[in-house]
Amino acid sequence: MIGGGQLARMMVPPAIHLGLRISVLAETPRSSADRAADVVGDYRDPETVYAFANTVDVVTFDHEHVPQPILRELEARGVQVHPRPEALQYAQDKILMRQKLAELGVPVPDWAAVETEAHLQEFIDAHGGRAVVKTARGGYDGKGVRVVSQADEVRDWFTTLAEDGHVGHLLVEELVEFTRELSQLVARRSSGEMRTWPVVETVQEGGVCAEVLAPAPVENPATLAEAARIGQVVAEGVGVTGVLAVEMFETVDHRVLVNELAMRPHNSGHFSIEGSVTSQFEQHLRAVADLPLGDTSMTAPAVVMVNVLGGPAEGPMPVRYAEALAAHPRAKFHSYDKQPRPGRKVGHVTVTGDDLETVRAQARAAAAAFS
Amino acid sequence: MIGGGQLARMMVPPAIHLGLRISVLAETPRSSADRAADVVGDYRDPETVYAFANTVDVVTFDHEHVPQPILRELEARGVQVHPRPEALQYAQDKILMRQKLAELGVPVPDWAAVETEAHLQEFIDAHGGRAVVKTARGGYDGKGVRVVSQADEVRDWFTTLAEDGHVGHLLVEELVEFTRELSQLVARRSSGEMRTWPVVETVQEGGVCAEVLAPAPVENPATLAEAARIGQVVAEGVGVTGVLAVEMFETVDHRVLVNELAMRPHNSGHFSIEGSVTSQFEQHLRAVADLPLGDTSMTAPAVVMVNVLGGPAEGPMPVRYAEALAAHPRAKFHSYDKQPRPGRKVGHVTVTGDDLETVRAQARAAAAAFS
Which of A18, A303, A333, A370 to mutate to test the interface with B (most CBs of B within 10 A)? Predict the structure, then answer.
């Protein structure tokens, strides 16, 4: 696994149970996945990645940032890479993603790839005077995303693109009026075998996932069925191997529009560690190792995951363990062993049970015990 | 953790989630817990153990074999050791265990500590002509246990004890007529906080645990209540910290007699990884780190664990993964990453569900897919 963040960290437990050896190429010696970090190095350095790949049977990822030329060279050298570069590109570049989704006939917000402020302003004016602008690459957790009414509000991004010598495009999208956000997790093997989890509702705060309700409360069964259908169309259409998260808006007029893709285990699937017979982390390992996929039934009627965001005044998550664990014996705590920074995800809490509102209240209270 | 077997291996996942760093002193470089094995050395060598203990906050165990003098010296040096040596001695020496249980008023089979064949024969003759003889130390999984009718059937053991220069006693016990075996798992912190899991039924084959039914089917509610009571009396009486397994016989006349103690996570508690809100491995970590204990409710009405025993013709467990996983998508496989030997536990399978017989059939079929 390339990348030593919390996703790599949470891949270690199922690797142990399955009897697979997971080896991590981490950015720093002190990473969330340091227990499995056999190599420390820069994933942008081709020789570092090639040397690491020589020690393993299959390469997969904790993030989408490994450059395409390195990925394609790995495949040229006969290395198994999952998801494959031609799938991963749609998670790496939001403009390629929008083009591919359009080709697949999947509903998305109105969008355009813009090269100039004039072109951007034209789009904004045609969509009610406000729009969402995104950098095509490198954004996550609300970074690289701005809601603007004037094109010059992203002049710095145009400047950076010009300086980088890219043929610089930004992605602009209509500001969708949505009632809530949904996510469909799909796992797929190269053979085409697919398994999906129930569609979940994700609650964002400040562009960052705050909590996930699994399964998504049924407000309109047809909408959830449509979200599930879209998730599967995208998984097959992009040819993902491993876990894919399709993040969607449910609009005020009951449409479902795809917002983002992630080709790896995803925050919206952390509930599955306790909440599903097979977690997204175990399933990702099975899929990239080309093993049959596991059952994805829920283990309880209601499962809620709440992220723990680190603030400046707090120590690492375990500092407050004694009181938090004592007060919340049913809550499952997951520490990422990260130094806290304001807004940084340093862990999460999951509670399972029979009644959504009870479970949600417990999960929120338990997460609050750390902040 | 001293010892690098499957118990240490299965302690790694909850350590990762809790954000605790687990460090293992393993016997060999290629152990079941090698992912966490920071030191390789002999746990019988005092300096090896003292050096290892200096690198950690608290010492605990994968097995009961670390000699008492080393454990007591660790405490004398100010090292936190859990369970403490004065508790662990009852799991190390079956004669001390029987004496302590008698003192606690806990029902046990008739027993005696015997030094000579004559004394042993006298016990056998007084108990219907057959009895169970056990070495006081070092036995497990049926090793160090013989059912005999003539005292000379254990002459080799008396000889070994004499050669070792011990004041040599063997333990002899009446052959109990039992209908089934039960186990009560208890976790206890040094503060006295205790949590128990439901009493389970364990099915042994050839002295080795074959399967565990959780919770134990109710044949007589009073018997299960008595088993639970005994488990708690023993946990408090011996002052365990961490997980204790109390293995018991349910007799044909509906009594409950204590058979064995284990002061560590135990095969009869492996079901709890999926079957309980808090697994025995997570609970052991919490208890020895003096953190509040977690909820031990079952996650499903019926949970069955079946051991996978390695035969000579088989490769390591993952060799047969593809077909086994494909046929049993609901089964959770746990590989210990061990080379197979006849009768050696190389992994286990757990299935959760609503109906015991269905779950049991699924778990047996899934385990059989490896043998």
Answer: A18
